[in-house]
Amino acid sequence: MISQTAEYALRAIVYLADNPTDAQTAEAIAKGTKVPVGYLAKIMQGLARSGLVTSQRGLYGGFTLARTPKELSVYDVIQAVDPIVRITECPLGLEGHGPNLCPLHRGLDNAMAAVEMAFKKLTIHHVLNQPQSNRPLCAFPRHEPAG
Fold this sequence. Notes:
The protein is mainly alpha-helical. The protein has helices at 4-18, 26-33, 37-49, 74-81, 103-121, 124-128, and strands at residues 53-56, 62-65. It has a domain at 4-83 and 124-128: Winged helix-like DNA-binding domain superfamily/Winged helix DNA-binding domain (Arc Repressor Mutant, subunit A).
């Protein structure tokens, strides 16, 4: 449903949200999220360009979230690195269809609209604070959610 790039970006954002006190280097994020550091560095640059993270060079440099986890949705992260593409015109270029989508493409676009809405409602705060015993592949969150 989402690309590997989007998955990696979400892992990085969740990692940063769970480690808010200090800037995190690309190496630390890569290790904590099991993402190849070279790939992650490019993703982090994209997240910085889109304003979701800030980066600082130097001895205590690294990445931090630019918004709070409550203000940052899964949709925001995905759109920053690999946007969801909606079907606004006939993908086949059929004459007379234009924005009047056939039932197949209308159904696909409706499904994408539902996915968009679900991702917009799901914040990073919600991801980190799910009352469950399972943890993501990565070794975060470090803390137990309040229950």
